[in-house]
Amino acid sequence: MKRIVVSMSIIAAASVSSGQSAGGTWSLLGEWQLFAIHMALLPTADHNGKLVVWNRHRTLTEAAHNNVNWQTPPYYSVVSHPFTSATKTRFPWDPQEFPNPFHFERDIFCAGQALTWDGKLFTAGGHEMDYTGLKAVTVFDPVTNSWSVREDMAERRWYPVCYMLPNRRMIIMGGTIDGIEDINTRPEMWMTGVGANQNEDYMFRMPLVPLDKYYPHTFVDPTDGGLIVVGNGVPEDNRGINPIANLTLRPFNGAHGRRSQQE
């Protein structure tokens, strides 16, 4: 399977020549060196933007027929406009030489992701194996093209959702802990740059949410600023959205402090 990248040029209806589609045309830009499973468009000073993308890995046991050629360590790429090429780079927390060559302490495949208020890319969770997540929190800085490891969450998450609130706090919801039915129903709220130490991360555990699948769909209520969960994403069974009625979190009020203890 090729890693093909294409772009679409939008053409005004008045200037469409014979044989051209009024909707535009597609053109081949090139091929990237990795499968871009995760992708985020980052803000830049020149407004051209750039993408940060990364793949998943497969160990020998995960690879089809234990074929060594299917082993894929986790890489990421920063792809600049016009997005024609990319060079894959090993994540900085994974050493080049492994005692066990295909074991990764921090694999952010299947992490949730969202942009922070200052244009950084926030990721939460990750991949130990299918349906078993990580507690990892990592942040990518598009100015320095560098990753930073942040304070862990309280519990593991595989396929969570991250949502930046208007007050610059990040809500992390859902994901599986250890198994397809082991849904993480305890949201957490992350913020940084507060308190006496401006460089310290703060993580708060929030009230339980009755989720039954991962990837919960969340929105901020424009009337009062509460966070509304309207349903769960169900990739495997094509049932679409299973609505949760009248479920609203209030993440704007409450005491500031360190991560609360396990209940």
Provide a concise account of the structure shown.
This protein has about 260 residues and is an all-beta fold.
Can you tell me about this structure?
With 263 residues, the protein is an all-beta fold. Helix content is 0%, strand content 30%. The strands form five sheets. It has a four-stranded antiparallel sheet, with no helix packed on it. The C terminus is likely disordered.
Give average pLDDT, whole number: 76
Helix content: under 10%
Largest sheet: 4 strands, antiparallel
**SSE succession:** EEEEEEEEEEEEEEEEE
Secondary-structure content class:
mainly beta
Q: Quickly count the helices.
A: 0
Q: Which word captures the global form?
A: globular
What is the end-to-end distance? 47 Å
Tell how many strands the DSSP assignment holds: 17
Classify the beta-strand content into a percent band.
25-35%
Low-confidence stretches: 9-16, 237-241, 252-263
Major sheet: order of its strands?
Answer: 3-4-5-6
Rg of Cα set: 20 Å
Layout of secondary structure:
Blueprint lengths: L3 E6 L15 E7 L6 E5 L7 E5 L20 E6 L8 E2 L21 E4 L5 E4 L12 E5 L4 E4 L11 E4 L5 E4 L14 E5 L8 E5 L10 E5 L6 E6 L15 E2 L14
Antiparallel strand pairs: 1-2, 3-4, 4-5, 5-6, 7-8, 8-9, 9-10, 11-12, 12-13, 13-14, 15-16, 16-17
Jot down its keywords.
four-stranded antiparallel β-sheet, 263 residues, globular, disordered C terminus, mainly beta
